[in-house]
């Protein structure tokens, strides 16, 4: 008697608890550590257009004790501020070098169709996560959602408004500046973007990026790992002749190739550094509520894209699941 087909190996939903645990640990450290005494940074520096949060008014002292509390630390400048570039590079390397999506060996038409479907669905999942990041932190028919929320909760460009207000009748209207400025233009003009609820774009971006790469990497690696330990989706049922086309990854020698190994190292390197910078953000940047607001948006998107399709067949048919 044939047994039910086993579910594909993937990250469990409980794995998402690592993110609130990280923020909680960082928040506790910021309270208990004598060196973690956040203060406002009054300096104004230009903001990168690819910065993860356009409304990021970081809570830093002017002379931070910890290296990671400095906005100009090398990891913040060359990793976090261009974090989606690293995320995209790691994701593309996974698509190019994982045998789940590509192969140089001769393939039947059914194998080609399966790989094409997997690739298309993986790109769709990446696109959906990217849209959430972009609309939240970069652009939403003008200012990003984070900027709009900041202004809606009373935020404004304080110092610039004061300076323009002292210009006299020939100056611009401060009310206009308050309405038009985004965090990027405010800081570039020498103002201080303060007064509202500043959802942490760092937290939002880092959670989205690390979750995306983790789910995709585990899904792409699972068939090879199952094959190594002699476990396949055919376990417990009679193997049919047509199964040779339905599960081509397990028999491919490319699963241990040099390129695939380094692609996975890049992916997990980005995930590891992303988690570390999330922990540093939890300690040094933003208020408690601002960090958890960013986490809520990110986890809602991740749950919808990677967990919900396991229960909804209609959604799974469209965006698929990593490794399936």
Give a short synopsis of this structure:
It comes from Penicillium olsonii. The protein is an all-alpha fold and 324 residues long.
Helicity level, as a percent range? 55-70%
Beta-strand content estimate:
under 5%
**Biggest β-sheet, characterized?**
2 strands, antiparallel
Oligomer: single chain
- The helix/strand series, from N terminus to C terminus, equals HHHHHEHHHEHHHHH
* Strands side by side in the biggest sheet: 1-2
Radius of gyration: 23 Å
The total of helices stands at: 13
| Euclidean distance between termini CA atoms | 25 Å
**Any low-confidence stretches, pLDDT <50, length ≥5?**
1-6, 38-62, 163-180, 225-255
Number of strands: 2
Membrane topology: Multi-pass membrane protein
Transmembrane segments: 12-32, 82-101, 122-141, 203-227, 266-286, 292-309
Subcellular location: Endoplasmic reticulum membrane
Family: Belongs to the FIT family. Fungal FIT2B/SCS3 subfamily.
Structure description:
The protein is mainly alpha-helical and 324 residues long. The chain has a domain of 223 residues. The chain is built from 13 helices and 2 strands. It has a two-stranded antiparallel ribbon. The two termini are 25 Å apart. The N terminus is likely disordered. It is found in: Endoplasmic reticulum membrane. This is Acyl-coenzyme A diphosphatase SCS3.
């Amino acid at each position: 008697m044939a047994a039910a087909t086993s579910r594909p190996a993937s990250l469990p939903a409980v794995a998402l608890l690592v993110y609130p645990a990280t923020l909680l640990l960082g928040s506790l450290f910021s309270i208990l550590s004598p060196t973690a005494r956040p203060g406002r940074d009054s300096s104004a520096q230009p903001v990168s257009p690819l910065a993860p949060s356009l409304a990021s008014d970081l809570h830093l002292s002017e002379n931070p004790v910890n290296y990671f509390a400095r906005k100009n630390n090398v990891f913040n400048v060359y990793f976090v501020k261009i974090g989606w570039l690293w995320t995209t590079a790691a994701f593309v390397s996974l698509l190019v070098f994982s045998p789940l999506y590509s192969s140089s060996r001769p393939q039947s038409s059914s194998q080609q169709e399966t790989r094409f479907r997997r690739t298309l669905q993986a790109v769709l999942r990446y696109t959906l996560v990217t849209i959430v990041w972009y609309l939240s932190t970069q652009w939403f028919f003008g200012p990003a959602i984070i900027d709009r929320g900041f202004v809606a909760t009373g935020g404004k460009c304080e110092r610039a408004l004061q300076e323009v207000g002292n210009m006299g009748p020939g100056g611009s209207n401060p009310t206009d500046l308050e309405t038009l400025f985004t965090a990027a233009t405010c800081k570039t003009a020498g103002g201080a973007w303060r007064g509202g609820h500043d959802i942490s774009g760092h937290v939002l971006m880092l959670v989205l990026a690390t979750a995306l790469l983790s789910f995709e990497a585990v899904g792409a690696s699972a068939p090879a790992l199952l094959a190594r330990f002699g476990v396949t989706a055919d376990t417990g049922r009679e193997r049919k002749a047509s199964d040779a086309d339905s599960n081509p990854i397990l028999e491919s020698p490319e699963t241990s190739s040099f390129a695939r190994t380094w692609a996975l190292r890049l992916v997990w390197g980005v995930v590891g550094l992303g988690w570390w910078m999330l922990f540093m953000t939890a300690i040094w940047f933003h208020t408690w509520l601002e960090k958890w607001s960013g986490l809520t948006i990110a986890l809602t998107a991740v749950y919808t894209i990677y967990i919900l399709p396991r229960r909804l067949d209609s959604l799974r048919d469209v965006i698929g699941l990593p490794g399936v």
